[in-house]
């Protein structure tokens, strides 16, 4: 990023025995939640509808108040700062996007920078930078939200949330309203973008596959706002804490684990591939490797990196890669 | 309001027979002395009433937005004003403010309040829920959301109110001439007492034309201040 923004370090988010009970409700929406999202990581909150995902997320920027427990960002209680200041330091993205229809795209992005008193020149530079970041042509700046497709609108939603380079981002099913192709595209771009800018992200989704793809960590909530399990995707898939989590991550969790690792990680350099072995790229997932193996009927696949052959991978190796303990 | 005999010189144009309901020569002869000035007066009577009504209504709606007691109170008050017969309203204020422009404006402005207040408040309340949620989440204060998000998004609704209010005031203002001799109502009231129809017909036609032109102008204004409502994908 250029000199228009000072790079702000990410901060960890800590939930410390947080309970939220809505007035007039028998059961809490969130029950004694304790977990730490390390600085710079993405935590996906998954669970059934009504499981308390949105509630947990909205507690962080105090759109919802809570009575017991505490939440800290970078060590500071969110109750210790003024609520407006708190929110301006937290990027906020929702499924319905919520662009301001009467403002141009540039106007939407400039709202918070404007309120913070940035100069016109700095705002214009930052807007261009953000449009580049979310891969929208700069000419979109002068258009109105109604002129954009759903996917383009959510890109603007992202750009707006990133405007003042907040250390923390809250995202509530941000890609949930998009068609599958657009969703995959914008997911990939967000992953890409995240690797360039360090943010601590709480990402709500009801889709376990999206959580596996997007999250460094996954928190599975169950009905009643109880945390069922918190860990990496691999941990959840390899060792689901109970039947509920096992059921939630799906009966095909073995295959899903294959998706998490790349051929490069398991290739055996000394083993020579048989002559009929099909080639698989070193950066393809084990799942692709398995699929290729099955489709060809060969006993092993040849792993290639560009023009170079790295070695061979057999069915046994694929299997042991996911059955061996992860811890 | 004078006796009919005093009006006789008005239709003394040579070619105008009293039986002719629309005599063009009279109109050209009396444009600069009667019709033109009346039209200009009518325009500023209307302009004052609509602008003052708009300022009061928008201020009241902004104040009422988060205060339901005030919204209910102001709505009841402006509805009450709206139900008073217009002539009675004008005459009610004569003992206080006399046979003056002030009396006319009090009456006309009062009539705009119900419409403009209700339209503004509705506009403030019907902005997309998601835009407000995003604004809250981003850290806009309730005041900033009201003035930067809700008020501009209420403009189409406000302008729709202005459109009806302006046309209503133009027609009501003719009646106001019974209180003070101002606007296009004056030639109408003058001519009612005579056998000569051209003055009445000309003033009435001018009133209608003014209402139509005003409507077009307000629509044009709305077009200018709400550019986002007319974009296409
Ligand atoms: N504003 C509210 N008032 C009362 N109950 C609410 C409110 N918001 C959510 N709830 C309840 O809290 C529970 C959790 O809701 P939510 O956090 O929205 O779940 P999720 O995002 O996982 O679908 C649900 O039972 C829901 O009905
Ligand atoms: Mg939700």
TrEMBL record, chain A:
Signal peptide: none annotated. Keywords: ATP-binding, Nucleotide-binding, Transport. It comes from the Bacteria. SUPFAM superfamilies: P-loop containing nucleoside triphosphate hydrolases. It holds the Pfam family ABC_tran. Residues 13-249 form the ABC transporter domain. One of its GO terms (molecular function) is ATP binding. Coiled coil: none annotated. Belongs to the ABC transporter superfamily. This is ABC transporter ATP-binding protein. It comes from Actinomycetospora endophytica.
UniProtKB/TrEMBL annotation, chain B:
Keywords: Membrane, Transmembrane, Transmembrane helix, Transport. It is a multi-pass membrane protein. It is found in: Cell membrane; Membrane. Residues 39-218 form the ABC transmembrane type-1 domain. Coiled coil: none annotated. The chain crosses the membrane at residues 43-65, 72-93, 99-117, 153-180, 200-225. The keyword Transmembrane helix applies. InterPro entries: ABC_transp_perm/SBD, MetI-like, MetI-like_sf. Belongs to the binding-protein-dependent transport system permease family. This is ABC transporter permease. The lineage of its organism: Bacteria, Bacillati, Actinomycetota, Actinomycetes, Pseudonocardiales.
């Amino acid at each position: 990023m250029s000199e228009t923004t000072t790079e702000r370090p990410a901060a960890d988010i800590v939930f410390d025995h947080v309970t939220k009970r809505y007035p007039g409700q028998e059961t809490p929406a969130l029950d004694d939640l304790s977990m730490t999202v390390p600085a710079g990581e993405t935590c996906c909150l998954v669970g059934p509808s009504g499981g308390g995902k949105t509630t947990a997320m909205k507690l962080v920027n105090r759109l919802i108040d809570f009575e017991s427990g505490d939440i800290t960002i970078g060590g500071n209680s969110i109750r210790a700062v003024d609520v407006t200041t708190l929110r301006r330091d937290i990027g906020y993205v929702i499924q319905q996007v919520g662009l301001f229809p009467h403002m141009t795209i540039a106007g939407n992005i400039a709202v918070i920078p404007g309120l913070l008193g940035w100069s016109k020149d700095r705002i214009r530079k930052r807007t261009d930078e953000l449009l580049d970041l979310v891969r929208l042509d700069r000419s979109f700046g002068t258009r109105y939200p109604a002129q954009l497709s759903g996917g383009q609108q959510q890109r603007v939603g992202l750009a707006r949330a990133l405007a003042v380079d907040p250390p923390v981002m809250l995202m509530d099913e941000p890609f949930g309203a998009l068609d599958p192709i657009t969703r995959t595209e914008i997911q990939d771009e967000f992953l890409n973008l995240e690797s360039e800018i360090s943010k601590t992200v709480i990402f709500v989704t009801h889709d376990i596959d999206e959580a596996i793809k997007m999250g460094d960590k996954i928190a599975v909530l169950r009905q009643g706002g109880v945390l069922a399990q918190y860990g990496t995707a691999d941990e959840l898939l390899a060792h689901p804490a109970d039947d509920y989590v096992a059921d939630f991550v799906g009966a095909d969790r073995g295959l899903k684990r294959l998706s998490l690792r790349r051929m490069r990680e398991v290739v055996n350099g000394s083993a020579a591939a048989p002559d009929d072995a099909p080639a698989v790229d070193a950066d393809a997932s084990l799942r692709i490797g398995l699929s290729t193996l099955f489709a060809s009927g060969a006993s092993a696949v040849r792993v290639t990196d560009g023009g170079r052959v790295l070695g061979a991978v057999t069915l046994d190796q694929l299997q042991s890669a996911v059955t061996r303990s992860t811890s | 309001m004078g006796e009919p005999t005093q009006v006789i010189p008005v239709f003394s144009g040579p070619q105008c027979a009293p039986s002719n309901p629309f005599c063009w020569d009279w109109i050209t002869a009396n444009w600069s002395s009667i019709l033109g000035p009346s039209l200009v007066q009518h325009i500023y009577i209307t302009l004052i009433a609509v602008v003052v009504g708009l300022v009061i209504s928008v201020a009241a709606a902004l104040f009422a937005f988060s205060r339901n007691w005030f919204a209910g109170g102001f709505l009841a008050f402006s509805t009450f004003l709206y139900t008073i017969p217009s002539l009675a309203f004008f005459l009610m204020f004569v003992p206080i403010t006399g046979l003056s422009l002030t009396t006319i404006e009090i009456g006309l402005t009062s009539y705009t309040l119900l419409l403009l207040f209700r339209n503004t408040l509705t506009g403030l309340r019907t902005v997309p829920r998601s835009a407000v949620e995003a604004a809250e989440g981003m850290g806009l204060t309730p005041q900033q959301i009201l003035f930067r998000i809700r008020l501009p998004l209420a403009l189409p609704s406000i302008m729709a109110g202005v459109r009806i209010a302006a046309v209503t005031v133009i027609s009501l203002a003719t009646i106001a001439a019974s209180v003070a001799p101002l606007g296009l109502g004056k030639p109408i009231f003058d001519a009612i007492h005579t056998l000569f129809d051209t003055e009445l017909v000309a003033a009435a036609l001018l009133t209608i034309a003014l209402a139509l032109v005003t409507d077009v102008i307000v629509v044009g204004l709305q077009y200018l201040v709400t550019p986002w409502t007319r974009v296409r994908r």
